[in-house]
Write a structure and sequence with these properties.
The chain is α+β, with helices and mostly antiparallel strands. The protein is about 40% helix and about 35% strand. Strand 10 and strand 11 form a beta hairpin. It is globular.
């Protein structure tokens, strides 16, 4: 009887699906270091009528609240799957613009050297190519950029920098309103 109950519950429990964003399979979970992270939400970054990238936000605990997602303790990941070629300078300029939009002048100025460090790493890559996966991992002490599952460049120190990156998509002035909603678990 007990086995039958477990079998019924298993069959009624939805399988981990992840998400499909513009033909990109965004996994339901991922691992950063030794931590298992859950897909909080996924969406599509559009610019005019172009699809730029599919993005997934992974957290230790799901939340529909932007401030909680930004401030949540533990390891985190932003996974960006490029849907078109974008030059390294254009990619990092867009990130820098998103940071400036969501921070005061003094905060943005304090973050500028680390934004430049990220830009230097991307400049070595030269281009965010269609099909490339770029990850921004919070390791507990630093932001580690990854390109196609390989660490790129030196880690960039400071929780404030990672929170600034998250505000690009989740801040008061997100890069795209419906993308913010999607990353917080809502439909895009």
């Amino acid at each position: 009887m007990r086995n039958l109950l477990f079998t019924i519950l298993f069959l009624l429990t939805p399988a981990a699906q992840g998400a499909d964003v513009a033909g990109v399979k965004v996994e339901e979970s991922t691992k950063v270091g030794s931590a298992d992270l859950l897909l909080n939400g996924a969406g599509l970054r559009k610019r005019a009528f172009f699809q730029v990238y599919a993005i997934g936000l992974y957290l230790p605990k799901k939340t529909p609240n932007a401030a909680e997602a930004i401030g949540q303790d533990g390891l985190k990941r932003v996974s960006i799957h490029m849907l078109r070629d974008v030059g390294a300078a254009q990619f990092t300029d867009a990130l820098a613009d998103g940071i400036r939009e969501n921070h005061g002048e003094a905060e943005a100025k304090a973050l500028a050297p680390r934004v430049q460090a990220l830009a230097a790493i991307m400049a070595e890559v030269k281009e965010a190519r269609k099909g490339m996966t770029i990850t921004l991992d919070w390791t507990g002490s630093a932001t580690q950029l990854g390109i196609d599952a390989k660490a790129a460049g030196k880690p960039i120190e400071g929780a404030d920098f990672y929170r600034a990156l998250l505000r690009i998509w989740l801040g008061d002035k997100p890069v795209q309103d419906d993308l913010k909603k999607a990353l917080l678990g809502g439909a895009q």
